[in-house]
Design brief:
It comes from Salarias fasciatus (Jewelled blenny). The protein is an alpha/beta fold and 165 residues long. 34% of the residues lie in helices and 21% in strands. It has a single domain, classed as Vaccinia Virus protein VP39 (Rossmann fold, 3-Layer(aba) Sandwich). It has a five-stranded parallel sheet. The chain is globular.
Length: 165
């Protein structure tokens, strides 16, 4: 089961106030994303990272397991193509198979049941879709079938490119 912190109102308020989402990482992700229809930000919290995807996609949907987190989304400043109406666990995304162009988890994937989340992301992504896991640390290794090494190599490349100066 995924770790379920940040579900209470006090945590959601602190999360909105202190969470940081660097915009430069969005540029890196978009450089690897050829299709721009539907993006899903999993574990979106109060939506700071989700809103950054709006200029690149027809539709962006933020999901979170916590209704308190989704209540913290500043609705008056959300772009019209962004919605936060999907409360769900990261491992049970309410999308059809092959429907999503980009699945992101911005500083949230370390809380998920990694194997179940990766299987679910694979299910909802269209062929050639993109999974982008953004994190504060590189202290985790991704394991997913025979592409584990490739996933970890990409993570290290992006980390070295942007955070080694």
């Amino acid at each position: 089961m995924a770790v379920r912190l940040f579900e209470g109102k006090d945590h959601a308020v602190a999360y909105l106030q202190y969470r940081v989402m660097p915009q430069e990482l969005i540029s890196v992700v978009m450089g690897h994303q050829p299709s721009f229809h539907l993006a899903v930000d999993v574990g979106c919290g109060s939506g700071q990272g989700t809103a950054l995807l709006a200029p690149f996609f027809t539709k962006v949907i933020g999901t979170d397991v916590s209704p308190a987190q989704l209540e913290m989304v500043p609705t008056n400043s959300s772009p019209p193509n962004v919605s936060y109406s999907r409360q769900c666990p990261a491992e049970e995304l309410p999308f059809e198979s092959g429907e999503v162009d980009l699945v992101t988890a911005m500083t949230a994937a370390h809380w998920f049941d990694r194997e179940r989340f990766l299987q679910e992301a694979y299910r909802v992504l269209r062929p050639g879709g993109c999974l982008a896991l953004l994190s504060y640390t590189m202290d985790m290794e991704l394991e997913y079938g025979d592409v584990s090494d490739a996933l970890n190599d990409i993570c290290k490349e992006v980390s070295n490119l942007h955070f080694s100066h």
